[in-house]
Amino acid sequence: MRLIRSSQIDRLKLCMDALRALAIQSADPNWYLLAEREITQYLQSPEASPQKLREAIDREAETSQDYVTFWTTMQELVSDLQPNDD
């Protein structure tokens, strides 16, 4: 069995998976803070790309007919992120 090092984990996928789970639980009064924390954790990872995060959230907002308010809010949250050297 091969062990996966943390550097090999797709952090963007983990972040998006967490955001999708939060979208389902958006009735939770803490959903915004939890989503913000997930995004912050992703952005602190060495391979973080604000542009890729914005694109992933935009794709989710376009394809998800459910939880429109959640994804619109996430788009607003990441819209001001400065690009890095992607």
Mass-distribution shape? globular
What fraction strand?
under 5%
Tally of DSSP helical segments? 4
Helix content: 55-70%
Supply the number of structural domains: 1
Low-confidence segments, given as residue ranges, are none
Our measurement of the CA-to-CA distance between the termini, rounded to an integer number of angstroms, reads 33 Å
Largest sheet: none
Rg result = 13 Å
SSE order in H/E notation? HHHH
Number of strands: 0
Q: Structural class of the secondary structure composition?
A: mainly alpha
On the 0 to 100 scale, the average pLDDT is 86
In short:
The chain is an all-alpha fold and 86 residues long. The chain contains four helices and no strands. The protein is globular and about 30 Å long.
